[in-house]
């Protein structure tokens, strides 16, 4: 399988090259040259999750099933649940991995690929996090031979529990508290990538969410959801920020997975819903909301959705639906779901709200649950006055020592630390 740079058709890559480079020339996104349609869907749906995922990823990447099987088995080693919330609606729980968010699927598969592709020369994953991505990346790369991960975060601006979740691992995971805000952390990472000597000496890679390995890994759980529904066609609703998760859903549909409609739910950072309504791409300033992992007004995966629509010959507004949900409706949704006996974090509850409003009487719906409710215990307590018990993964790290170094928010300090 060839991968094309969507901004520069002369820039092509194998899967391995696309994963190692992350971004293509001119900051372009890599994407499979064509989406393979699966043969024998029923037989595929009958396979166990890991085996089916290896087959799907072999189709999408061009790697052998035998190469992918051990990577996938290690990466997807946690449960995935489909819970009926009522007669029509199901929660697809994607948050049972080590960082309690769906990003574990993509980060762990990418880590397994980079480790498998390693030729012995050092690889350093350098990434900045405002909270959640850091945890997924740290757990994904922890203990992987030949790879070191360096994760920057703004000191004192993530929750103590978030910090414990990824700054207590040690080994090949170095966490660095920066005495500055998240934008500065991100600027420092960019500067490191512009530093030719650093880049080659350390083999820098960003593990950024636009890496195509992270995207393709997420295709697999849509097949699992349909398998758990017994092949029934459902409306899927995905809480969306950078639109990677929902892009993966669109890829699954393009591969032949029966999906009735795909709905991307956003918070009031609603660039895409407005774009689908009036054809104008007009991002506004990003606003802070209760679903903070989706506080994004320039979703960087959207060109991939447009490419899929173009290939399908469908206008974008008919290819995907998108709805914005306010904080007030998100809070109400947490409460409404709790009354049905289901506890959801704000991101997942927001998706349920959008799905519930759109679902026809004769339709089945699935909403993606992207984070464990305990990660957003404060919001839930505020919404419904309920204390969320700490799951084991959080309870275990609560008393561990934070191992981070602290440096000022300037590049010279980071360079010194990296060269050390
Ligand atoms: C990252 C994230 C999202 C948004 O996913 P995208 O792929 O960026 O659209 C939604 N919910 C949670 C909890 C997240 O961490």
Explain what the structure shows:
The protein folds into 2 domains: 79-100 and 218-388, Rossmann fold (3-Layer(aba) Sandwich); 103-210 and 400-419, Rossmann fold. Helix content is 45%, strand content 16%. The chain is built from 20 helices and 14 strands. It has helices spanning 15-21, 41-46, 49-61, 65-75, 103-117, 132-141, 160-166, 182-194, 196-202, 212-217, 219-228, 244-254, 271-278, 302-312, 316-319, 327-339, 346-358, 377-384, 392-397, 411-419; strands at residues 3-5, 8-13, 30-32, 81-84, 89-93, 123-128, 147-154, 173-179, 204-205, 235-239, 261-266, 321-324, 365-369, 405-408. Strands 4-5-13-10-11-12 form a 6-stranded mixed beta sheet, with helices on both faces. Strands 9-6-7-8-14 form a 5-stranded parallel beta sheet, sandwiched between helices. It has a 3-stranded antiparallel beta sheet with strand order 2-1-3. The radius of gyration is 20 Å and the shape is globular. 47% of the residues are buried. The mean pLDDT is 94. Bound molecules: pyridoxal-5'-phosphate (PLP).
Tell me, what is the CATH class of the largest domain? Alpha Beta
Count of extended strands? 14
**CATH architectural name of the largest domain:** 3-Layer(aba) Sandwich
Helix content: 40-55%
Gross morphology: globular
Strand order of the largest sheet: 4-5-13-10-11-12
Layout of helices and strands, plus pairs?
Elements lengths: L2 E3 L2 E6 L1 H7 L8 E3 L8 H6 L2 H13 L3 H11 L5 E4 L4 E5 L9 H15 L5 E6 L3 H10 L5 E8 L5 H7 L6 E7 L2 H13 L1 H7 L1 E2 L6 H6 L1 H10 L6 E5 L4 H11 L6 E6 L4 H8 L23 H11 L3 H4 L1 E4 L2 H13 L6 H13 L6 E5 L7 H8 L7 H6 L7 E4 L2 H9 L1
Parallel strand pairs: 5-13, 6-7, 6-9, 7-8, 8-14, 10-11, 10-13, 11-12
Antiparallel strand pairs: 1-2, 1-3, 4-5
Helix pairs in contact: 3-4, 3-11, 4-5, 5-6, 6-7, 11-12, 12-14, 16-17, 16-18
The protein binds pyridoxal-5'-phosphate (PLP).
């Amino acid at each position: 399988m060839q991968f094309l740079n969507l901004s520069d058709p002369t820039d092509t890559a194998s899967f391995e090259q696309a994963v190692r480079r992350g971004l293509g020339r001119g900051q372009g996104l890599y994407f499979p040259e064509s989406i393979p349609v699966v043969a024998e869907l029923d037989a595929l749906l009958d396979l166990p999750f890991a085996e089916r995922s290896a087959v799907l990823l072999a189709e999408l990447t061009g790697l052998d099933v035998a190469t992918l099987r051990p990577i996938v088995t290690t990466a997807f080693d946690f449960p995935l649940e489909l819970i009926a919330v009522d007669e029509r609606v199901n929660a697809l729980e994607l948050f049972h991995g080590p960082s309690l968010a769906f990003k574990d699927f993509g980060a762990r598969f990418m880590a397994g690929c980079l480790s498998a592709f390693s030729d012995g020369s050092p690889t350093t994953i350098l990434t900045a996090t405002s909270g959640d991505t850091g945890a997924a990346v740290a757990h994904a790369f922890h203990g992987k031979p030949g790879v070191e991960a360096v994760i920057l975060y703004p000191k004192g601006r993530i929750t103590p529990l978030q910090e414990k979740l990824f700054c207590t691992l040690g080994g090949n995971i170095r966490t660095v508290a920066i005495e500055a805000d998240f934008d500065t952390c991100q600027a420092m990472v960019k500067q490191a990538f512009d530093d030719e000597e650093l880049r080659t000496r350390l083999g820098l890679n960003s593990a950024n969410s636009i890496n195509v390995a992270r995207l393709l890994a997420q295709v697999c759980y849509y097949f699992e959801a349909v398998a758990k529904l017994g092949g029934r066609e459902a409306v899927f609703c995905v809480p969306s920020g950078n639109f990677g998760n929902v892009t993966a859903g669109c890829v699954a549909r393009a591969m032949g997975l029966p999906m009735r409609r795909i709905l991307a739910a956003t918070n009031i950072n609603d660039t895409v819903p407005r774009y689908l309504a009036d054809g104008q791409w007009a991002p506004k300033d990003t606003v802070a909301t209760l679903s903070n992992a989706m506080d994004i007004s320039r979703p960087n995966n959207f060109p991939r959705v447009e490419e899929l629509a173009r290939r399908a010959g469908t206008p974008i507004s008919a290819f995907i639906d998108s709805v914005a949900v306010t904080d007030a409706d998100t809070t109400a949704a947490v409460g409404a779901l709790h009354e049905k006996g289901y506890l959801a974090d704000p991101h997942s509850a927001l998706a349920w709200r959008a799905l519930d409003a759109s679902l026809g009487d004769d339709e089945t719906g699935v909403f993606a649950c992207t984070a464990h409710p305990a990660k957003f215990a404060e919001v839930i307590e505020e919404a419904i006055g309920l204390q969320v018990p700490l799951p084991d993964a959080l309870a275990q790290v609560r008393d561990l020592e934070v191992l981070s170094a602290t440096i000022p928010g300037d590049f010279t300090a980071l360079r010194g630390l990296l060269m050390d």
